[in-house]
From TrEMBL:
<dbReference type="InterPro" id="IPR004360">
    <property type="entry name" value="Glyas_Fos-R_dOase_dom"/>
</dbReference>
<protein>
    <recommendedName>
        <fullName>VOC domain-containing protein</fullName>
    </recommendedName>
</protein>
<feature type="domain" description="VOC">
    <location>
        <begin position="15"/>
        <end position="153"/>
    </location>
</feature>
<dbReference type="InterPro" id="IPR037523">
    <property type="entry name" value="VOC_core"/>
</dbReference>
<dbReference type="InterPro" id="IPR051785">
    <property type="entry name" value="MMCE/EMCE_epimerase"/>
</dbReference>
<dbReference type="InterPro" id="IPR029068">
    <property type="entry name" value="Glyas_Bleomycin-R_OHBP_Dase"/>
</dbReference>
<keyword id="KW-0479">Metal-binding</keyword>
<dbReference type="Pfam" id="PF00903">
    <property type="entry name" value="Glyoxalase"/>
</dbReference>
<feature type="domain" description="VOC">
    <location>
        <begin position="163"/>
        <end position="300"/>
    </location>
</feature>
Amino acid sequence: MSSGQSELSTSSVIGIHHVGMSVSDLKASVEFYSEALGVDLHSTPETMQIEDGSLGFSTPSSSAVLAFPNGYLKLSEYDRSDLPPSAVLPVKGPGITHVCYQSPTSQDIYQRLMDGGATSVSRGEQPVHLLGQGVYYAYARDHDGIMYETEHLDHTPFEGPIWFSHAALVSPDLDRLVEFYSLLFDAKPNRRTDRASGPRFDEVAGYDNVMIRAAWFDIGNMILEMWQFVNPVTPEPQRTAAIEDLGYNKVAFEVSDLQKEYERLTGLGVAFLSSPAMSVDGWEVCLRDPDGNLISLIQPKTQDDFSVSHLKQKTW
């Protein structure tokens, strides 16, 4: 049971299984992230053997999984020869704008990623000491223009050099998104704020006069973070993002009983893109949240070690 759920919760969500990311060059992306962050491949890049068409989305030509102490990042390369170039997703969204990597300040993963070819989004040459609590924040983009966040911590609550901290959704309607995920998790957010602003926020986000509303769900091993920019305003999505578009293309949640979750949510009026089917990750079913972000529920195969239940959990 996640820290974000009550003892009476009917949800069997136990954590964020993985965040999916569509990249232009799988080998280059694996090298960029694994070398700078010091994480290993859970699986080697290879042609996918199982078609995922029954789940309602395209099959990548090759895919690889990076394993962090507490979660997974799944990188996929698609045949994009017939697709227009993907636009860079703005900091203000809407969509899955970034994931966050935390580390002790001494590790300086921000600089290691910059040395690997990243470009800064945040203002200045170093991460921003945002709230005066020994945490230093910065946004940057990889060679595909995909944004990530680094957080350097003077005092880390976790063991090891790095932690896969959170996935971030930016929405034009925070209340609508919170209502949906509260239904999904059968739990309210652990934290909310209707006003976050100030010069330091401007430095991190790269905008003037930033004003943000936010909510956070603690989900076992990671955090699902949600923002709504009040200034500059987060726009409504203009289209449903394709899974082949460069950027974060899915957030997958692990459940202990997929059929139970499918029936529970269907009974509550949630529409799915497919029925539960076997994918490369186990039994899986896909749906979209109110902003059109692709999410899925996964129950790993029996005795399969590709499960967050074997990983470190967030206990603070």
